[in-house]
Amino acid sequence: MPNFSMREQLLIALIFLLIILLVGAWGIHKLNIQEKNLLIQIEKQELQFKRIRSLSSEWNKIQSNPNSPVMLQDLSSFVENIARSLEIQDNLQLNVLSNVQKGTEGVKVGLDRLQLDQFLSMLYKLENHRPVLHTSHLKISISPGSRQIRTSFQVHKQLGG
Q1: By 3-state DSSP, what share of the chain in percent is helix, strand and coil, each rounded to 5?
Q2: With CB atoms 3.0 to 4.6 Å apart as the test, which of 4, 25, 107, 119 could cross-link to 8 if both were Cys?
Q3: What is the pLDDT of residue 130?
Q4: Positive or negative, the Cα torsion across 113, 119, 122, 127?
């Protein structure tokens, strides 16, 4: 191993020290860049969390409110009033449905000895009512001799709050 003079040893030590300082500075610079990137990612994540909380809150409000305007009148009376306005109340049978979807009310409507135009008028008034009513399970049978129809269907409405 060659003998270095004191001056050469000092110069070598300074070069090593300079290399160590440069590597350390470069490492610290890389860590600072990485820290800034992580802080930016954290800010983006926080904004996303705030947006998710806001949307979640909005979703809960929407779910708690009815989707459409709600009819305040009792469904059975409403159907009876339509039958009365068409002068077919004597042909009407109503049964309240017990197993309906949560948040709705339903009645089964039976109509007997009707002319087709009377039935269509009844159906039109129900289907085009605001707030919206839902009709389903429509069954129609026609008496061949008398040209009258017998029908049954279900009417549902959304309940309020």
Answers
A1: 55, 25, 25
A2: 4
A3: 78
A4: positive
Q: Tell me what pLDDT residue 97 has.
A: 87
Contact (CB, 8 A) for 156 and 100: yes
Give one word for 116, left, alpha or beta, with left for phi > 0 and alpha for psi -120 to 50. Answer: alpha
Q: Is 0.85 surpassed by the pTM of this model?
A: no
3-class SS at 111?
strand
Please report which confidence band the pLDDT of residue 65 belongs to, taking 50, 70 and 90 as the band edges.
low
Give all strands (DSSP E) within 3-161, no chain letters: 92-96, 104-114, 134-143, 148-158
- Give the CATH number of domain 75-158: 3.30.70.60
Q: Is the model's pLDDT at 156 over the cut of 60?
A: yes
